[in-house]
Specification:
Blueprint lengths: L6 E4 L5 H12 L3 E6 L3 H13 L3 E6 L5 H15 L4 E4 L14 H29 L2 E6 L3 H4 L5 H21 L4 E8 L5 H4 L3 H9 L9 H12 L10 E4 L5
Bound molecules: NADP nicotinamide-adenine-dinucleotide phosphate.
The site of NADP nicotinamide-adenine-dinucleotide phosphate has 32 residues, from helix 1, strand 2, helix 4 and helix 7.
Length: 246
């Protein structure tokens, strides 16, 4: 129960990778805040699963791209559990389109959630972490933020920028024992990737030396490691978890 008495706030934890991270922390004894934007019943199901495993969790609705809503999410976490030890910026959306057809709103929406959302969350929680002289910030980026991808200029820009934030925050916060790292998943089976054409999935699979698509637990395991005492000398890094794809 390494995370007993630790409070972990995970954005976008109602589904997919965020859900797996929330369940893993909950089972490891943490008090977990399960943030969601719209899928309340899924978020409550995650909370119940954590409680069934003997853990402690609440669900909290907030659109992380909204500055005030992100502040309310941070405040609610502190009111409920007293502090924030680990912040996982996981919320993300795609609006894939080739550049010729990409609408301005497709760019703005993705940047607002994936990039500004993480910035909002850190803006509202860093003062507390710096004051208490400990904290772990883990940003979920993407392999495409390292290599680019056709049809995802908006998404790739948001994830590459997350790497920049990660490295800058690591340099700003290090003296106060707050580490900041990014986890860059490859192709992980979730609702985000479910809708992709089978031919595209087969193409991705052909590029993965470990010869399988990633599972949400592959990412959760690395996030828990980065939040653990064993990772206390790691900061400013982008950890690739992609089966050898890149
Ligand atoms: P997913 O299954 O589509 O789940 C997305 C989560 O983000 C949901 O919980 C959703 O909440 C939440 N969310 C969306 N917009 C939000 C907002 N404005 N405010 C708060 N929460 C919001 O996605 P996923 O595949 O698990 O991806 C999780 C993260 O990993 C994302 O950052 C994604 O870019 C990254 N990633 C995924 C893959 C992959 O292959 N799946 C690869 C690389 C990186 P609701 O349920 O309430 O809508």
């Amino acid at each position: 129960m390494e995370y007993k008495n630790k409070t972990v706030l995970i954005t976008g934890a109602s589904r997919g990778i965020g859900r797996a991270i929330a369940l893993a922390f909950g089972k490891a004894g943490a008090s977990v805040v399960v943030n969601y934007r719209s899928k309340k019943s899924e978020a409550l199901e995650v909370v119940q699963a954590i409680k069934d495993a003997g853990g402690n969790a609440i669900a909290f609705q907030a659109d992380v791209s909204d500055f005030e809503a992100a502040e309310q999410l941070v405040k609610a976490t502190i009111e409920q559990f007293g502090t924030i030890d680990v912040l996982v910026n996981n919320s993300g959306i795609t609006r894939d389109q080739l550049m010729m057809r990409m609408a301005e709103a497709d760019f703005d929406d993705v940047i607002s959630v994936n990039l500004k959302g993480a910035w909002n969350m850190v803006k509202h929680s860093c003062r507390l972490m710096l004051k208490q002289k400990h904290g772990r910030i883990i940003n979920i980026s993407s392999v495409v933020g390292l290599i680019g991808n056709p049809g995802q200029a908006n998404y790739v820009a948001s994830k590459a920028a997350i790497h920049g934030l990660t490295k800058s925050w690591a340099k700003e916060f290090g003296k106060k024992n707050v580490t900041v790292n990014a986890v860059a998943p490859g192709f992980i089976e979730t609702e985000m990737t479910d809708s992709l054409p089978q031919a595209l999935k087969d193409n991705y699979l052909a590029q993965i030396p470990l010869n399988r698509l990633g599972q949400v637990e592959d990412i959760a395991d690395v996030v828990l490691f980065l939040a653990s005492a064993k990772a206390s000398y790691i900061t400013g890094q982008v950890i690739s978890v992609n089966g050898g794809m890149v």
